[in-house]
């Protein structure tokens, strides 16, 4: 924990007035909301260790590595009395419509938080700036700042600090701000007045996120089986993606936002004001083939400063191969995709080769099925009625193009 020295201008202020100053400074630094909590997370501890005990953390061994340091802040940073929690919005309203991209099989869907620059450094710098301001007016101030960078139970802490409730999808949701935001914390030795926590989950009877999850990874209220979660599979997991989950991943190559896209509270989300979080690399409109054709140097150069770079070139290609194998298109398009896939066979890694082979087999099976349907149509004149129905269906789909519906749930809720 850092000890911040003070200068001659240090003022004697009350904890209550300091709390108000912290919130004002936080807003000036670009945080959308700031809350303060104590360090008692005992109400969350059993659920956390039950989650670990069920192996729902998959291969994220760091989730279990630190024992109770994650659930007991004073063990991680001795002397911690209060936790300052912040949130910062990241949804870019100027990016291509998320739902449009998700429903375009040949496009590459990337989680909205990763369209811009890596948030870790930016939030840590802002937290440091906030700590510097606190040090100017406070004696004996010790602290440590976090932005998804240590064994911190972020969401329970945020709930205790009044930044939102933990939703059925396990994310922090605020009734007036949705869930499209990052979290950060400052552990401090200052005894600050705590904010009113959220004590009730605001999801009510809604189960849209549970229904819409492509791989059914939400196994209970606010309980995620990471081993089935597309965000885990595409980012944290380094191995061979289970065969039964590959077709369910669709065109999602980095992360997954489906549970947020169908959450009714997210119609109240405010767009980000941080240019760093705005789409800067045209990842909101890139096609799978376009990204597949990058070599490793292009991958490193084009994604410089992006959180995506940390998964590495091998995993990037593994994810792309799966999504390319899920494309449904015309015979000619599928043939072109197969040709692109074949260009990297034996060129990247054995793991990538395995997923390329799977993808090619998927596409060839789809092409064979399409050929069989064509033959059936040619030899059976009574299909004319069916063809007319198909044409009418295509017209309906065209008319509904701008009113895309979720795959399972009833409606999308995009920020206004």
Automatic annotation (TrEMBL):
Active site (UniProt): 148
Pfam families named in the record: Fer4_16, QueG_DUF1730
Residues annotated as binding [4Fe-4S] cluster 2: 213, 229, 256, 259
Region (Disordered) location: 380-400
Keyword match DNA repair: no
Matches recorded under InterPro entries: QueG (IPR004453), QueG_DUF1730 (IPR013542)
Annotated binding of [4Fe-4S] cluster 1, by residue: 203, 206, 209, 263
Cell compartments where the protein resides: Cytoplasm
Plastid is among the record's keywords: no
Cofactor(s) named in the record: [4Fe-4S] cluster; cob(II)alamin
Molecular function in Gene Ontology: epoxyqueuosine reductase activity
Signal peptide range: none
Catalytic activity: epoxyqueuosine(34) in tRNA + AH2 = queuosine(34) in tRNA + A + H2O
Pathway linked to the protein: tRNA modification; tRNA-queuosine biosynthesis
Cofactor binding mode and count: Binds 2 [4Fe-4S] clusters per monomer.
Function: Catalyzes the conversion of epoxyqueuosine (oQ) to queuosine (Q), which is a hypermodified base found in the wobble positions of tRNA(Asp), tRNA(Asn), tRNA(His) and tRNA(Tyr).
Assembly description: Monomer.
Protein's recorded name: Epoxyqueuosine reductase
